Amino acid sequence: MLRTGNLDPGSSTPLYRQLYLQIKGLIESGDLGNNTRLPATRELAGQLGLNRTTVSAAYELLESEGLITGQVGRGSFVTAASFRTATPPAASTPDWRNILPDGEAPAPASRSQVEISFSASRPSELLFPLEDFRITCGEVISSPEAKTILQLGSPLGYAPLRRYLRDQSQMEGVVNESDDILITSGCQQAFDLLQRTLASQGGTVVLEDPIYPGLKNVFQRPGARVIGIPIGGNGIEVQALEGVLARERPRLLVLTPNFQNPTGATMPLSARKAVLELAQRSGVILIENDIYGPLRYVGESIPTIKSLDASGRTVLLRSFSKLAFPGLRVGWIIAPRILVEKLTAAKQLSDLHTDQLSQAVLLRFAESGRLEDHRKQMLNAGLERLRAALAACEKHLPPGAQFTQPRGGMNLWIRLPGGLDASELLGRAEREGVSYVPGKYFAVSEAQPSALRISFAGLEPEQIRTGIRILGAIFEQELERTRTDSALDVPAMV
Amino acid sequence: MLRTGNLDPGSSTPLYRQLYLQIKGLIESGDLGNNTRLPATRELAGQLGLNRTTVSAAYELLESEGLITGQVGRGSFVTAASFRTATPPAASTPDWRNILPDGEAPAPASRSQVEISFSASRPSELLFPLEDFRITCGEVISSPEAKTILQLGSPLGYAPLRRYLRDQSQMEGVVNESDDILITSGCQQAFDLLQRTLASQGGTVVLEDPIYPGLKNVFQRPGARVIGIPIGGNGIEVQALEGVLARERPRLLVLTPNFQNPTGATMPLSARKAVLELAQRSGVILIENDIYGPLRYVGESIPTIKSLDASGRTVLLRSFSKLAFPGLRVGWIIAPRILVEKLTAAKQLSDLHTDQLSQAVLLRFAESGRLEDHRKQMLNAGLERLRAALAACEKHLPPGAQFTQPRGGMNLWIRLPGGLDASELLGRAEREGVSYVPGKYFAVSEAQPSALRISFAGLEPEQIRTGIRILGAIFEQELERTRTDSALDVPAMV
Q: Which of B288, B282, B102, B309 has the alpha carbon at shortest distance from B204?
């Protein structure tokens, strides 16, 4: 048995790192000799009361440093020799742990033993139109523009792509004379540039609560204050927003009106108009994240807030990466020209410009009509998957569980009954081959212990059904167990 | 004649924008009616004492808003109709000018009338190995990995590329057991991530002076203090550095030991060792920017500081984009694992991950040996261009002019004699079809009015000779004029 000391779940050092450091210490001190077999991850997790993923992460780190080696079917063995022959660090090695700022632990990544992962809001690669992609690439690299594409480009983006997007946006009524378009390296960069340009000098930012952590973490930086407003079935709660806008005079309001991540909620037209009016009254700048907009499976599309806004306070964010190929990082910002100028200066300092090969390939993919063909495929597939997810939730979740009813996008949101903690149950779900992201990773102002996000778009309908059936059974058993425990907890009759 | 008011060169609003606003006002007020012909850019520049590029930029902005239209061979005409039918801004339009932070004017971009541009430190697209690139792309997109490449990736970078770079770096001795590799969206992003992770909470950053503005501007952000140390023919002045390290206890020291931008200077081995020892003594973290390292045309390569450093305080930055295709944005950071972990968290917030199509294409390009073949072509071409530039400087620059003697890279640095101001002379050079970047854009602590950067790598040898001949003649004439003026300035003999 491995003799590790106590691990501290409250420490700013993640558990996997604490475990890694302890095992490393045992190897370096010689307590664990060369060729010693380490316990299986499942076994050690059981002994220490940890998630198996935590142990796997510690082992991976040890392996990446050459301290242990995994052998298929046999387990992991100490191979400390490589460590001992390495150059010993000189006396003046920087104390990186003191130099570096503390950071938040990232959201859990799905481990390889998980067969059905509801953890990533992304399309299924089985749906990628590879043949169309190959044809498109071939056309781009054999075109006379190839030289221009491979040469250094403009921070604003590849000019033919910007023209194409402007034409499309004009037809749709989401760009006006005083607007301009900046190409970004995906929508994540758009958030980052907006934070730097509009919120880095302090001020309050209002977000939907819960919200995608990549968005929250961008704005939750030193100097900025972030307030979450609860989001219901019709998007952000307008009355709560009204109070906060009046009281806090925030600088920015970030909304995802279509198929919000994680809840899947969509704002109806009336809510969009109401929020825009509140924004105009309070002077807040409104950032409209519309990356899921083209993925509506049910019902009619609703105008963007940007298209309703004559006052020029709405900044619209879009991206190819939910629709087409997430590995190609191309998004864009539509905003008043004066703001685009500042964002472009920030963009130039961030990464000079967005990769031009992907810009040119995605332009050709869109121009040729292949993107629209692909979108139709995505809509069919998305509808099938959404229906499978909703039907499975209806059938398998325990009574009292609540789940949202998205009409598009990639995510739905479940709240468990009876005080169940989604974060605590994740380890068990993963042992049974299913993963999800617990609600706490999406929380802004309000804790979300009972909630979890199910990202359904990347899976096959059969996987969705199986995965939700397994989760439903786990939740049901846990409810049963807590009911039994509390029955036993009743004071004895005397 | 166009009746514009006075323009204020001291304003934070750039001149082109002031001019644009004035002309826009004249159009909106009706003073300039529809179909009125605007003066030619050269003519208006002469009238107002502006650079022609300034006028062109103002016209471009007017054209992009549909206020004027250029007709080939005829000039620019007011087409205000489209403006007047646009939606008038509502009363609550945000006051963007007050909301947005002031920014620095960007370095001048080369205008289209310039035929020989020494302004961009980038390779010539005539040297791009297009056929090899096409073959490489074809191999990547028809490989079984295509699906993985197009799917969402890891913030650390495309795993096969990271493995390849680690193997290469190990052979070269620039990575050790406790290091890791993070792929960045070009080297500019590496600077940005390092600034966010190591210098955003204050502290002093020491840079070479002069330095590439994209690097200086990243570190010159609110909260950080930047100190420039003069750079000579052998790189940063070690004695001056020693004083600053002792006195200021800076957090970061950023060096480009090979073919520095803009000076082309290279640090000899002795200087690298001396700087490393000073860094160890003072505790500063050393960032070694080596993007020009593979482009040595003359002499033997010198070990990187990273390979000399056993203390783990050196962070090495590299990139494909100077060597191969600048439009593909892929660079990497080699640093202690604990720092890479923090940089990866910052990277994830910045843009999730680097574009995977370009990562995979560049990996295949390198693995297949095509990158090394291409590098050999680049070395031949670079040597020819460097020799052409140095010979032309020798022949055409006026007596008293100084210029550096780079042995690789893309840039050399000229200092003009007799109090000539390179910034003032740029307008005249551009009128004669030649551009460069004046020294002031590279200045950190010391003004560089007499200096200019010549980027020679993107031009043909004949263009280099012609361009430097034209510049030499302009500088010579200006020297002659100032000599005559000062001769006239001599007090009368009495």
A: B282
Contact state of B100 with A339 under an 8 Å Cβ cutoff? yes
Q: Taking CB atoms and an 8 Å cutoff, what residues of chain A touch B157?
A: none
Flag whether residue B147 sits within 8 Å of chain A, measured between CB atoms. Answer: yes
CB contact under 8 A, A201 and B101: yes
CATH architecture assigned to B130-368? 3-Layer(aba) Sandwich (3.40)
Q: Which chain B residues are Cβ-neighbours of A90 within 8 angstroms?
A: 280, 310-312
Of residues B493 and A273, more confidence is placed in A273
Q: Is B112 part of the contact surface with chain A (CB cutoff 8 Å)?
A: no
For chain A, say whether B199 makes contact (Cβ under 8 Å). no
Q: Give the type of residue at B236.
A: I
Span B437-487, pLDDT tens digits: 999 999 999 999 999 999 999 999 999 999 999 999 999 999 999 887 766
What span, in angstroms and rounded, lies between the C-alpha atoms of B427 and B424?
7
Q: What is the DSSP string of A421-450?
A: -HHHHHHHHHHTTEE-EEGGGG-SSS--TT
Six-digit token string for B74: 């005829």
**pTM assigned to the model:** 0.80
B116-127+372-482 CATH fold: Aspartate Aminotransferase, domain 1 (3.90.1150)
Q: Which CATH number fits domain A15-90: 3.40.50.150, 1.10.10.10, 3.40.50.10680, 1.10.275.10?
A: 1.10.10.10
Whether B203 has its CB under 8 Å from any CB of chain A: the answer is no
- Please state the domain extents for chain B: 15-88, 116-127+372-482, 130-368
The three-class DSSP label of residue B446 is coil
The rounded distance, in Å, linking the Cα atoms of A286 and A268 is: 17
**Token pair for residue A214?**
């990549």
DSSP A126: G
ipTM over 0.85: no
